[in-house]
Amino acid sequence: MNLQDIRHLFDYTEWANDLAMEAADELPDADLHRGTGISHGSIFGTLTHMAGAEWIWLERWTGRSPAKAEAWTMWTPESCGDLATLNDRWQDVGEVRVPESQVERALALLPAIDPAQIEEVERCAWCGSKDARVVAPFTTVLASAGAAVVAWEIYSRRFEAAVAAAFLALLVVAMTKMAAGRLVCTNCGREWRAPRAAPDPSDLED
User: Fold this and answer.
1) Other C-beta atoms within 10 Å of 129: how many?
2) How far apart (Å, rounded) are the C-alpha atoms in residues 113 and 1?
3) Which site in 19, 87, 107, 183 is 20 to 30 Å from 116, CA atoms measured?
4) What is the domain count for the chain?
5) Vertex 141, ends 139 and 146: CA angle to 5°?
6) pLDDT range class, residue 85, cuts 50, 70, 90
7) Based on the domain organization, do 85 and 181 belong to the same domain?
8) How many CB atoms lie within 10 A of CB 146?
9) Kind and range of the H or E element at 14?
């Protein structure tokens, strides 16, 4: 991992957060705050938990470790109140995370790498391609299931429910990629950082 990799991860986090907030902004306030039986009560509760968890990890990263009561004071549906307030606070977290000092701090924790190897590291270990994408288990199934639910709600003329279902589907897919995603080469489909090894005989037969 190098500077470009860390910046890419920061950019991906910002993209996923913005995607979730844009989808939430399309929901009526009643749907945003309605209890749905999920872990954090509502869609808004889930978003506040996501933002709060990111802030807590950033605090730990910078050498502070707030106690549980203090940690969640700003990150509850009651304290945030509405989507605009949550968005402002979450943006502040992003502004603290992105500065170059944070990238340098991350790099300082990584093993040293020979500059001559950087070009090799930034390419697929198998085919040399520079193109990669993030994949995670079951995201295709989750996306298909979400699309089916949205289509059914639209067919049933429950448009607000369709918007809520679309948001939840996007949120679940984004969180799955963030939690269990891995980088694969778009050219050969293999693990991006996998060590080069002798080819499998079955691969030679194709």
Assistant:
1) 14
2) 9
3) 183
4) 2
5) 90
6) very high
7) no
8) 19
9) helix 3-25
Q: How far is CA 174 from CA 128, 138, 143, in A?
A: 28, 12, 10
Chain centroid to Cα 200, Å, comes to 33
Domain match, 108 and 156 both: no
Within 8 A by CB and 6+ apart from 33, the residues are: 42, 43, 44, 77
Type and span of the H or E element at 8: helix 3-25
Ramachandran area for residue 91 (φ above 0: left; ψ -120 to 50: alpha; else beta): alpha
Closest to 142 in 3D by CA, of 109, 180, 107? 180
Are 110 and 181 members of one domain? no
Q: Which residues contact 137 (CB under 8 A, 6 or more apart)?
A: 176, 180
Q: What is the pLDDT of residues 101-125, one digit of tens each?
A: 555 665 565 555 555 544 444 677 7
Residue 32: HSE in the Cβ half-sphere, 13 Å Cα cutoff = 19
Q: Are 102 and 180 members of one domain?
A: no
Burial of 155 (0-12, 13-18, 19+ CB in 10 A): exposed
Q: Give the domain range for residue 15.
A: 1-121
pLDDT in tens, 150-162: 788 777 777 777 7
Question: CA-CA distance, 43 to 29, in Å (whole number)?
Answer: 10
